[in-house]
Every structure is written in structure tokens, then in C-alpha cells.
Amino acid sequence: MKRFLCTGGMLLIMLIFTLSLLPTNAFAARCQVAPPTYSVPTEAAPGQQIQALTTVIGSCVSDGEDYYAIRVDLTDASSALIISSNSTPIGYNATNFDITVENTITTPSNNGTWHLDIDVYVIRAGGTGGSYLLDYRAASNATIQIGAPTPVPEFPAATVLVIVMSLSMAVFAIRSRKRARIPALIGRCQGR
Predict the structure, then answer these.
(1) Half-sphere exposure of 137 toward its Cβ, with a 13 Å CA cutoff?
(2) Mean pLDDT over all residues of the chain?
(3) How far apart are the C-alpha atoms of 53 and 49, rounded to whole Å?
(4) 3-state SS class at 45
(5) Domain extents for the chain?
(6) Does the pLDDT of residue 130 top 90, yes or no?
(7) Is 171 helix (H, G, I), strand (E, B) or coil?
């Protein structure tokens, strides 16, 4: 027991020592970004090229050694395929930025409602290590009406009432005829 406590204590001291050597901002978020804003048309023609604009405003901890960029991916929600990906550089100084990323997409060739997923990334490329790190991610969605909406047939209330009454009377007439035939059939079978 004494040996276990001694070994456990040593491990705890080593862990505290290792954590104290880490930079203090290792656990802090490197970028503070306002929710991105999106601009896509609400309606478009089938097969039309359209522009989707995404604006990202924020600030990152930047010492001038890391290169920052914003990437925006547009994904067709039904197929989960990325249909457009574009990056715009922020640069080495990312302490304050207001960047708009433009994506060009082509609408589907058929009419209907088109659902898009919009993913925004703030990416940091390390100056010395060359590693790429994701410092921020946001996701949203958009809906675009492609072509004319499919009209839903509308019936005036009077027409619906006439149809329901006609069907009800037809069912009643058929049932009445069957009820009248049954006693006649039974009488014939019994020889009356």
C-alpha cells in the first residue's frame, strides 16, 4: 500500500510538472468569430450559375508566424457531395478580419427545393512546422427554390362538398340495392 501511494504520488507530481510546462494559451480558443452571414438567392432557374457569399468577421491570436485563411464548403444536402469549395486568405496578421468568400455553384437541372449545407472553417498553417490546424468551424444551411414551384391543386369548398355528397350517395345506393336483393335471393332459394 505504501509503495502504491508513493508511485501514485510520483505520477501525480510528474503530471503537474508536465502540465506546468505547457503554454498557458494551449487550452484557450485561438479564434473568436462572430456567427458567419450567408447570402444566397432564394430562387434560381434550373442549370443556372449563382453566387453564394459568406462573410466571416473575427479575430485570432496571431504572432505573425502563422498564415490564416477562411474556407467555405457548399454541400448538396441530399447527396452529401461538396459542390463548391473556396478559400480566401486572411494572411499572417489575423488579429482582426472581415472576409467575404465567394462560391460559384450551378443549380440542379430539375425544378424543386434545393437544400444546401454551408461549412465555414478558419485554418491556420504553421510557419515552422507547416502543419494545418482548424481553429474555428461553423455550419449552417440554405434553401433555394429551383424553377417554378409545383402548384398544389386547389378545389373550392363547394366543389369538394359536391364530390363528397356524390360519393356518399353512390355508396348508399349500392348498399340499398344489395339489401333489397338478399331477401329476394333467399326467397328464391327456399322456393317461394
Answers:
(1) 5
(2) 80
(3) 13
(4) coil
(5) 29-146, 157-192
(6) no
(7) helix
**Of 116, 97, 110, 111, the residue nearest 51 (C-alpha):** 116
- Residues contacting 151, CB < 8 A, separation 6+: none
Query: pLDDT per residue over 38-79, tens digit each?
Result: 999 999 999 999 999 999 999 998 878 888 999 999 999 999
Residue 155 carries which DSSP code?
-
The C-alpha cell 485570432 sits at 60
> Rounded distance, CA 168 to CA 172, Å?
6
- Distance of alpha carbon 160 from alpha carbon 31, whole angstroms: 60
> Taking 70 as the threshold, does the pLDDT of residue 116 lie above it?
yes
DSSP states of 90-138 as a string? EES--SSEEEEEEEEEE--SS-EEEEEEEEEEEEEE-TTT--EEEEEEE
Is residue 11 over pLDDT 70? no
State the DSSP H helix or E strand holding residue 51, giving kind and residue range, or none if neither: strand 49-60
Stretch 170-179: mean pLDDT: 71
Distance of CA 25 to the CA centre of its chain: 32
What is the distance between the alpha carbons of residues 142 and 169, in angstroms, rounded to a whole number?
49
C-alpha cell, 50 = 449563382
As given in the structure block, the three cell numbers for residue 111 are 425544378
State the pTM of this model: 0.61
pLDDT at 27 over 50: no
Architecture of domain 29-146: Sandwich (2.60)
**Distance (Å, whole) CA 149 – CA 143:** 13
